[in-house]
Request: fold
Amino acid sequence: MQISGRRTIHLFLLPITVYLIIFFLYPVLFELYISFFDYSLGSPKKFIGIKNYLAMLKDEEFIISLRITSVFVVSAVFCQLTFGLLIAILLNHESRIMNIIRTLILIPTVFTPLVAGLVWKALLHPDLGPVTYYLRQLGINIGRGLTVERSTALFSIVMIDVWEWTPLMVIIILAGLKSLPEEPYEAGRIDGASAWHLFRYITLPLLRPTVVVALLIRTLDALKIFDIIWAITRGGPGTATTVANIRIYDVGLQHLRIGYASSLSNVLLVIGILIGVLFVNVLYSRKYGGIR
Amino acid sequence: MTIFKSYSLKKKIFLAVRILIVITFLFFFLYPVFWVIQTAFKQRIDMFSLPPQYVFKPVMENFKFIFEKMHVFQWTLNSSIISLGTVVLSLIMGVPAGYAFSRVKFRGKYLLLMFILLTRALPPVIIVLPFRVIMHTIGLFGTRMAVILIDTVYNAAFTAWLMSGIFENIPVDLEEAGIIDGCTPIQAFIRIALPLSKPGLVTSALFAFIFSWNDFLFALSLTSPPTATLPLGMLSTFGMLSVGWTYMAAMGVIAVIPVVVVSLLLQRYYVSGLTFGGVK
Amino acid sequence: MKKRKILLILALMVLSVSLVFAGGKKEEPAPAPEKKVEEAAKKPYEGVKMRLAAMADQFAEYMKVLTERYKAETGADIQVDILGYVELYQKMTQDYSTDTKQYDLATVDIVWSGEFAVKGWTVDLTPLIERDKAEINTNDIYPVMWAMGSWEDKQVAFPMSGYANSLIYRKDLFNDPAEKKAFMDEYGYELAPPETMSQMRDMATFFTRKDKNLYGLVANGARGPAVAQDWMEYMRSFGGQILDENGNVVIDSKECLESLKFFVDIFDKWAPPGAIGYWWDDRETAYRTGQAVMQSSWSIARAGYEDPSISKVVGKTGMAAPPKVEGKETFYGVGGWGIGINADISKERQEIAWDFIKWLTSPEVQKDWLLHDGQPIRISTVKDPELNQKMPWLPVMHKVYQNGDGDYRPRVPEYNEIQSILGLRVNQAITHELSAEEAISKAAEEIKALY
Reply:
């Protein structure tokens, strides 16, 4: 879509570009620069070329953390999408009670992730937590506690993330559902399509752009997960919940090895960029034939 | 006749299943919220009694404590100012950009769009350090503005993205007509396109608000004690040897109320405003 | 009409700008101390504002009261900002390294001494201590306390709050005649607070009654500083070391391995099931809610057991010097917090900060503080008859301080990395991801790689 007088409109891009160059690009370039140094906070820095990046290959914990991050991102985002779709469809009709439910369901999202983590830490406290207590009463074997057993710790983190962010997914998908046109459904009903077919062949394709954007935002955010894990397990037990950002935090802000932490951070940024490019291409390939 | 009957039974079962699923999810989402609220009214010693007690004599001690001994009022104010500031700045940066993305074609648009989007992928842990140095250099370190600036980095891009989808849905003809009537393009944007995109604006604002309200890591590194935010305040109830769970819960209640009220008030806008990606 | 609107908008803008930009810190010049006789009544530091970052330990709350008193006496207004352990470290290291001068004073953990000294982050107090030796009365401070802040020939923090590592046990159960008899019948010797590790083992086993939700011995198991620091306490009891006097890595010793095996046993046999995920507060909660019978803890936690708002074991707690392994002479663990001055602030402010430190650690203030959740550094405070009456456990602390060792957690610049390595490897040992031998050898390998 074009508009006349577009030279002026170009200027609209100026503020954000300048802003991001100063406050985004500069720190990123600084991070890139410092990643070629052996730099410990408070000590002089020493240029060491790409040694930080080579050291990474031998950093057992970082490699594990990348694996754990991907398991976390995939399972958390998948659950959020599935539950989000399910709940949104169930909630998609207008009534006063639905309005109330829609607002109530948003509350987890406005808990600061850190606080959400702390709340769940108490709920899942291995000896004194109420949820632990109920699970044990129900005869479910949770070992020594969901958050402290190696086999279930990551699962509990995924659950908390799902708790926190599914509501946002619900709201996004609900909005998408509301904006769907009526005509294809009428046509479909006349052709005698079942509810499932209507959903599968009309709703889902029409929802695709909404879902892809929601997925992209959630994936990029999930890649950065830190607060919840920091509040509950700080990467333990063992390395069971050590996601990339926990490793970066330990190296950078606890051991103060900023140079090395920057190189780790850059790797994570590149992974984020690749995922972003992938999503945007998927999003724009059919709808607009890509923006180029 | 029999077919009709079984059909309605099927429908009833569907409805029952539907309600059951909604209730299950509601329980999952709201039990922790309920737990926080009731903990806020408990005495510290009763915090971890098993089996969990739900009938108890509520006390106001925790609220009294946090208002008398901690700067809850100041923290809430700081959180509000920072969140609102982020909202305003993100909209100022993001909305015109989103408009431009939807209205003009130019070389490198794709790259710029990607670049903007990728701010969201930036790992936050290390970036606070160079950011802290910048803030210190320009004398903003320790101010609320410092947090607003970095929160905006993450949100402006998202706003631009979301708004470009919104503007795609607004027919360009109206603005064209305005321009023929003698508006400048800027006037056309302000007087015609902006009012039409109100739901989108509200949604962007809400998202920026939630992000900023929830932020902890940036606030920890960039604020000074008088500008500390609520999440930092809540963390300060966590002593080494004993955790002030009940105080944290009381603060949690305080922290959630304003956001719930705002989202209730805005609901009719944002639910219709989230038409991503330009579904026409 | 339009003018008014513009004015209103302008006013709003000014207001919001002032709100948004407020809170940055400018360094006020310190007024020169008044010397004229006729103005002697005037407070010397009137108008000076300072900030102190305090660890969120028991002592922190009363620090606010003390700074109020200091303000009343001298006029200097010192704001206390309470931060958790990890946040404090993060905030201070960033403050020092980016020269933001956010805090003039900060509590310094004993284990940070080496790092802070090497990086020059806090002021070396040696010349000031030498100058004011008489006023401070250095002989009154337990020698072990100087470990809080000393590194090579520097003293980068002043001892403020000394913690005695001690054995906390349920006096009521240990003194119960029925328990005593049952123990005698089973083990053949008197039930009393354990003095050796094998006695501790017997008693932990004796008191562990899972069906009654009673557990013999509890320790921290959570990955990170929690498990690392708790294990090091047992390691010291077994006579192990991480670094020897010459700085060699000696963690792969028999003693360390023995202690780790004992530590693993705690979680396998005697502790509440969730202890593998415990932080300090969880461990203390387990004790205060009556789940655990014994634990190794810092003396700072002692007062909390008598606080009915958080403790269900009021009046039931005994405190003793920690047990040792048989046939080995070991020292007791001492830890705690010093207080340091930011090296970036001006000389005048440093002087005022130093004056505050001297005041805070003076015998009179120390006594008041000890009554309100503080911890002592002075012999005279621990020997004070009035305090001894209120706190019958002080002689135990005296014994620990007299034979204390502040170095069992190595106070080297690399401490944080050593702690992270141990935090992971010891945690893996207690969750049986690694055997004790593997954990020790991996930790040794990784710590050696730091040098």
Observations:
- The first helix of chain C runs from residue 2 to 21.
- Chain C has two domains: 45-163+335-405, 164-334+409-450.
- Confidence is low (pLDDT under 50) at residues 27-31, 34-39 of chain C.
